[in-house]
Each structure stands twice: as structure tokens, then as C-alpha cells.
Amino acid sequence: MAVLVLALFVLVLPEVYQAPLRDALRGTAMRPFLAVQARFASRSRIGDPARLKAQRDSLLALVGAQAALAEENRRLRGALGLGERMPATFLPAQVLRIGARGAESTFMIDVGADHGVVVGGPVLAPEGLIGMVWGVDAKFAQVIDWTHPEFRAAAMTADGETYGLVEPKRGRFREEDLLVLTGAPFHSDIRPGTRIVTSGRGEQFPRGVPIGTVTGIDDADTGWRKSYLVRPVARPEGLIHVLVGRATGSVDLTSTFATPVPPDTSFPVLVPPPPRQPAPAPPAAPRPDTSSAPPATRSDTSSASGGSGDRP
Amino acid sequence: MSGWTRQWTLFTLVLLIAHILLHVALGLGAAAPDLLMVAALLGARRLPTAGAAGLGFFLGILADTFAVTGFGATAFALALVCGIGSLSQDFFEGESLIFNGIYLLAGAILATLLADVVSGRGTGGFLPGTLGVFGAAGYTALAGSATLWVYRRWAGLRA
């Protein structure tokens, strides 16, 4: 009976008291086994050089682009007389899979507090956001990917028109897991195919990291807000290497990921259409496909009416 | 420590290390059987109730080391199920592999469901969740029966 009471006590302990016990077990009893996997993984994965090279090249491109941006940012801030901003450097890490119960939707990485990894740091795949650091010990860190129920990320459409919060939506099977953009205003009309990126709000994740693509409406609370289904750009199953942010902070990685604004949400009314050589229709006449085309995007209407939401 | 106790302790340690090797060092996940549960459930039939619950708690805490949410859920579930398993000695006598297989199957289903309920960890939809729990429990029972057979051969040769 005493053992059951003790077990129940451990179960209901707040996370802040459970963490030291868990960290102690990981740092002692489990560390040799994690080290074995790190060594084993680094050897066995050499057997797939094409895949490894592709991921390495993608990550190198990201790091390289970020370095150029950082240099430019430093130069501009120096020219403006501004001080150095908190750097958000990324370091590559190897993914270690844990097959234990309760560790679903998580993975370990072979860098930890000794390398500057902090809890809450962003974890990026070559395609975009994959998760965040959940726990850190000296040599290893645990990451939750976007399929974990605790995962949340401040997000926006690529054109910055609509903001919200991205959270996972479990499918019947793991392969059907998706993301949901919640908290979007009810009058928002995000069309399928619109790209969703991190907004940088709350300074949890850098701004402009691709998250996914809207596939449709998930739910619409009467008169208040809408939720949109988002198909993520990066899936955690086949990951071998990731980039881990050593600090959280407001950094803009839009240019790093080269996320162009899709044409359907890129302020089309502000850009004059190119002149056409032949003029088959009178200027005042509507375009022939207007009747069959879908209704105007929110950016169309909002731009025409002077914007909406937090835009002036 | 008697010879039998020493042998059984060694058997439990081998199962424990094999489980961590398969699940943590090799990261095999569901492809590897839950040998921690096998060790806890088989040990529970040979220990007094308090000892069985303590064994379940210890092995459950180890199993929960990498759990992000619901830390302690497996420890609670295994402590309870191992306690019940120890009490079952008074009601069911049997050492055959079939009896132990059924006992392992029932214990694994009960412990898994209990851990999922108290931790709030979902297992997806109803059908995949049910298939997952029963499939994993069946796999555990099969693996447990096989390891018990190996243990008996080994113990018989040593005795």
C-alpha cells in the first residue's frame, strides 16, 4: 500500500519536481545507452550517403544563409549605432530515436547544455520547423516534434495578414497527423495552398520559418474565430540531422528559408498589372473568368478596404 | 541469497538491460518486446505483495525516464498490477507456459490501459488504440513465454 501511495505521489507531483528525478535517471542509468546509440547511429547512417549528403547540404545552406544575414544585420546595426542583438546561432545535431513508452513524438539529440542548448530552443529541419527542445542535460537534449500534444507555435500566413497559434491534430494513425492554425479571426479567409510560417511572437521561435500549407477549414466557432488545417512541410519520421537554436529570440529567418509570398496573397491590388499588347476587351469590362473564379482573397479585400486586424 | 533467488535476480537484470538496449540504445520502439513488463510481471508471481509492488514501481520509473508527459504513470500502473499479480498466487496455481502466457497477456493489457488512463496519453483513434494495446500485449506475452522457457532451460541446466 505504501508503494502505491508513493507511486501516486510521484505521478501527481508537479513537473518542476518530477524533472530532477527524471534528469537524474537519464544522466546516470540511461546515459551509457544513449551514448551507445549516438555512436551506433553515427556509424550505421554512413551507409546511406545520398540521403545524408542531401540533408547535410540543406542544413549547410541554411547555416550559410543565416551567417550572411547575421553579418549583414551586424553591419547595418553598426551603421545605425545599435548594439549587438542576442544572437540565435544554430548548431547541427544528430537525431537519436527512443523507443520507450511515453516518448512518442519525441526524439533525443546529441547536443546538450554543454553545447549551449536551452529548453524551448527551436529545432529546424531542412524544410522548416520540426519541434522544440523540451529537456536538456549536459550531453543530450530531448525534443518534442510538432505531433506532440504539448507543441504550440505562434504562426502567421506568409504575407503576415493573419496570425494564430499552430497546434497538432491527431489523426487515426500517426501518418494522418496534421497541424491546426487556431485563433484566426472569423472574417479571415485563408485559401488552401497558403503557406504558414512562424510569426516570431512570444520570441519562442524565429520569425519566418516554414510550418506548413493550409489545406482547408477545420472548424469555425460561430462568429468568433476559425481554425485551418495545415499540412506540415517537415515530417519527423525520416529525420537524421536537425539544427538546434542555442537561444530563443526575435530573429527573422524569412530570407534564410526563402519563403516567397504566394501570388494569391501578395497584395495584388497594390501591384499594377503589366500592360497587355493586344486589347481584346474594353478596359471597363470584367475579366472573362471572373464569374467562375473563387471569391477574392482576404488580402484583396482587406487591402482594398484599408486593411483589417492590427493593420492601421 | 539462495541459488534460486540469485538466478532469478540475474534473469531480471538480463531482461532489464536487454530492454534498455533494445529500446534506448537501438531505438527499436514497438518492434522490440516490452521486457521490463515481462520482468515485472514474472517477478510479481514470485514475490510477496509489497516486494512485487516495489519491483513494479522501480521498473516503471525506469520505463518512464523518457516520458515527456505522465511521468510516474507506468510506475503506478506496474506497482498496482504487480501487487495484484502477487496476490494471484493465492488464487491461481500454475507454472505452465500457457498459463504464464495468459497471465502476461492479461497483466500487460491491464498495465498498459491503466498507464494510458492515468497519464492521459492518447493512442489515436479507438481502433488503432485498441489494436496497439492488444497487439503489444500479445507480443509481450509471446516474448515473455519464450524468455521464461529459455530461463527454465538455463536454470535446469545450472541446477
Give the topology.
The complex is a heterodimer of chains A (312) and B (159).
Chain A: H1 2-12, H2 15-27, H3 31-44, H4 49-79, E1 90-96, E2 106-109, E3 122-124, E4 129-136, E5 141-145, E6 153-157, E7 163-169, E8 178-185, E9 195-198, E10 210-221, E11 225-232, E12 241-245, H5 254-257, H6 298-304
Antiparallel strand pairs in A: 1-2, 1-12, 2-5, 3-4, 3-12, 4-5, 6-7, 6-9, 7-8, 8-11, 9-10, 10-11
Chain B: H1 3-25, H2 35-44, H3 49-63, H4 73-87, H5 97-119, H6 126-158
Helix pairs in contact in B: 1-2, 2-3, 2-4, 2-5, 2-6, 3-4, 4-5, 5-6
Q: Quick gist of this model?
A:
Chain A has 312 residues and is α+β, with helices and mostly antiparallel strands.
Describe the protein's architecture and organization:
- The complex is a heterodimer of chains A (312) and B (159).
- Chain A is α+β, with helices and mostly antiparallel strands and 312 residues long.
- Helices cover 26% and strands 24% of the residues of chain A.
- Chain A is built from six helices and twelve strands.
- Chain A has helices at 2-12, 15-27, 31-44, 49-79, 254-257, 298-304, and strands spanning 90-96, 106-109, 122-124, 129-136, 141-145, 153-157, 163-169, 178-185, 195-198, 210-221, 225-232, 241-245.
- The longest helix of chain A is centred in the N-terminal third of the chain and has 31 residues, at 49-79.
- The termini of chain A are far apart.
- Chain B has 159 residues and is mainly alpha-helical.
- Chain B has helices spanning 3-25, 35-44, 49-63, 73-87, 97-119, 126-158.
- The chains are: A alpha+beta (312), B mainly alpha (159).
- At the A-B interface, helix 1, helix 2 and helix 3 of A face helix 1, helix 3, helix 4 and helix 5 of B.
